[in-house]
Design goal:
By secondary structure, this protein is mostly helical. The protein has one domain. The chain has six helices and no strands.
Amino acid sequence: MDLSVLALIVSILVGIGTIATIIWRGGGMAGSLNELKERHKNCPVGTLQIEFKELKAKQDIFWKIIEPHLAGIIHSPTHPRRDELVQKLVEKRIELYELRELIPLLEYEANNSVAEKKLSAVFLLARTQMLLIDRG
């Protein structure tokens, strides 16, 4: 395995660990809504907004760093449309219908490729689904 691929995989795992720690410590998605409400019942709304903005900023930094590397790993001359959509995803200019089009292409790659492409596809699939949720 190429050292740059190994370094990317280690970076991805560190990033996942960081995000998991933030979520676990903050009770974010891993905690129940009632626990979150109870913990912040005397907390002003402004403080909650700041916490959510900080979490969003950290998430944005993670994806800004990792997306181009994932796009490079998954790139293939035999899948020009998928590569075009992934590039739009990285450049933040992908449309909602294109996100929906990209999901089955990434699912196929996640189920039918070598390890490093599979890992890239899974991360890009997660990012695509997160954006779909954000955009409604």
